[in-house]
Amino acid sequence: MLGFVKVVKNKAYFKRYQVKFRRRREGKTDYFARKRLVIQDKNKYNTPKYRMIVRLSNRDIVCQIAYAKIEGDAIVCAAYSHELPKYGIAVGLTNYAAAYCTGLLFILYIAIS
């Protein structure tokens, strides 16, 4: 019969312990999924791979076009629902209609640039 052995995490364990990336620890970035989003085909030399990002928060809706660089992601174009009051929509900046209007504003910005 085997006895109970307590697992001891001693100084040697913590000395060799490597912490995860900060954004992984915060739970903000899934690097496995990000790699699949960002990685470019090998036959498209130095061509940026654009992606559309839509974020919904309690106060705002954000639409962005971004691509990855070594220094960090570069934002090409962005539209925010807090810009909608300039166009006559003053309240409800996070509802379904505001999301639609933010998308329209985003398309307008892309067409201009």
Automatic annotation (TrEMBL):
Entries under SUPFAM superfamilies matching the protein: Translational machinery components
Gene3D superfamilies for the chain: 3.30.420.100
Keyword terms: Membrane, Ribonucleoprotein, Ribosomal protein, Transmembrane, Transmembrane helix
Gene Ontology MF annotations: 5S rRNA binding; structural constituent of ribosome
Family of this protein: Belongs to the universal ribosomal protein uL18 family.
GO CC annotation, single: cytosolic large ribosomal subunit
Lineage: superkingdom: Eukaryota
Name this protein carries in UniProt: 60S ribosomal protein L5-like
Family matches, as InterPro entries: Rbsml_uL18_euk_arch, Ribosomal_L18
UniProt organism field: Sinocyclocheilus grahami (Dianchi golden-line fish)
GO terms (BP aspect): ribosomal large subunit assembly; translation
Transmembrane segments: 89-112
